[in-house]
Design a protein that fits this description.
This protein is 45% helix and 7% strand. The protein is an alpha/beta fold.
């Protein structure tokens, strides 16, 4: 009991009090941590996934086009076990109607020993954050002793990482039809099954989405995820499949030669996704709801920041020339 008390107390002490690097938070966690600043039970859609999710889906575009309130809780290299504990934490404060899981994480796994170690580590860090932030004891300040955890500023980007650089994808057709499948690992499906269970218990529908990514995706992966979704009775939307995908311009929409989308590609994907969500799920349009007026303020900030990022990227290109 004493040991448990010490773990709880030290966790409250060492956990970063703000979502900044200076306060001790890892950079990859900062965009998702901003969800703590959102009012309780105000989000209808939560997005989980690795960097494909937070570079490819812009919640403010969903708001602007459809009035859908959403937040991207993606992390660079997010693994399925991390997505599970991320969602578990989010559900303490939010009651989403739809949870989107970006499927690139289906292929984030290593050897069995590493995966088992990762599972234990992430579980321990979720329940006792001191295991993640134990090194912060060297830089504790008076604020850590006196202040509760608080995110001081809303993220107008809602977890989206806006990037304006353009590096075209030039590899040609990448979704060549085949009956073959690229097998995923048990360590992934084990946690995706538990994410699906969390969704069911919290009255949320789980939607698997593959963001366009020519460098990472092909028909073998599509077939594997489609088979998994069919077996579990889940909805699957693959935006790489040409019959349903938004019209991508790989001369302009790629951030890094087909690995991630830049802002141009993300806007196309987000608008397409918003239309799909509106057509297939019961999601209210909150744009006339006074209690969501702060989203219009965030939209102004988002549009300005998006414009600045695009202009900065153009200047960088012209400067390099």
């Amino acid at each position: 009991m004493l040991f448990l008390f010490l773990l709880i107390g030290s966790s409250r002490l060492t956990i970063p009090k703000q979502n900044t690097v200076d306060s001790g938070m890892e950079e990859r966690d900062i965009p998702a941590a901003g969800i703590e600043a959102e009012p309780k039970n105000t989000l209808d859609v939560i997005v989980l996934g690795d960097s494909e999710s937070h570079t490819g889906i812009s919640p403010m575009e969903l708001w602007k086009e459809q009035g859908i309130v959403s937040y991207v809780c993606g992390q660079s290299g997010q693994r399925a076990v991390e997505a599970y504990y991320m969602l578990k934490g989010v559900l303490q404060k939010q009651s989403p109607k739809v949870v989107i899981l970006e499927t690139d994480m289906f292929y984030h796994f290593r050897d069995r020993k590493t995966e088992l170690k990762h599972m234990v580590e992430k579980a321990a860090q979720y329940y006792f954050p001191v295991f993640k932030y134990h090194n912060r004891w060297k830089v504790l300040t008076s604020h850590d002793w006196t202040e509760a955890r608080s995110v001081v500023k809303r993220d107008a980007m809602k977890g989206f990482l806006c990037r304006g650089a353009i590096k075209p994808y030039t590899g040609g057709v990448y979704m060549k039809k085949t009956e073959e499948k690229e097998k995923t690992d048990w360590a992934v499906t084990f946690w995706v099954d538990r994410i699906a269970g969390l969704c069911r218990r919290n009255n949320a529908e789980l939607l698997l989405v593959s963001v366009p990514a020519p460098k990472n995706w092909d028909y073998k992966r599509h077939n594997e995820v489609a088979a998994y979704a069919a077996k579990r009775g889940l909805q699957y939307l693959d935006l790489n499949v040409t019959e349903i995908a938004p019209q991508m311009d790989w001369e302009k929409d790629s951030l890094d030669e087909g690995d991630h989308l830049n802002v141009y590609g993300a806007v196309k994907v987000s608008r397409f996704l918003g239309q799909y969500l509106k057509a297939n799920y019961v999601l209210p349009d909150h744009r006339r709801d006074e209690s969501y007026s702060f989203w219009e303020q965030d939209l102004e900030t988002y549009e300005k920041r998006k414009k600045d990022i695009v202009e900065a990227a153009k200047c960088e290109v012209h400067g390099s020339r």
